[in-house]
Design brief:
The protein has 111 residues and is an alpha+beta fold. The chain has 5 helices and 4 strands.
Amino acid sequence: MSVAETIKDQIESNAILLYMKGTPRFPQCGFSSRTVEALMACEERFAFVNILENQDIRTELPKIANWPTFPQLWVGGELVGGCDIVCELAESGELKEIVATAAKASEQAGE
C-alpha cells in the first residue's frame, strides 16, 4: 500500500481523525496540544496519527490535503483545518456539533 493509499484509508476509516505531533496524552507541540484540548472538550472519541513517528505521512499529507501545517483535523472524510480553525470552531460551539454529527453517523454506519 502506498503512503497516499494509507492516508486515504486512515481518513475513510475514522470519522474523527487528528494528524498531530505526539499523542493526545503527550502532544509534542503547542498547536497539537490546543487542538487536542478543543477536541477532548467535545467528548467524542477520535483517532490520531502521530506524524513524528511516520515521516512519509508527515511529508505526503500536506500535498494530499493542500494544507501545509500540522495538526490537521479530518471529520467525516473532510479536512476541517488546523489549530486556529479548530479553536475558532470550538469557541463558537460549531466544533462540538461537527464532531457529534460525525460520531453519530459513524455509529449508525456500524463503524
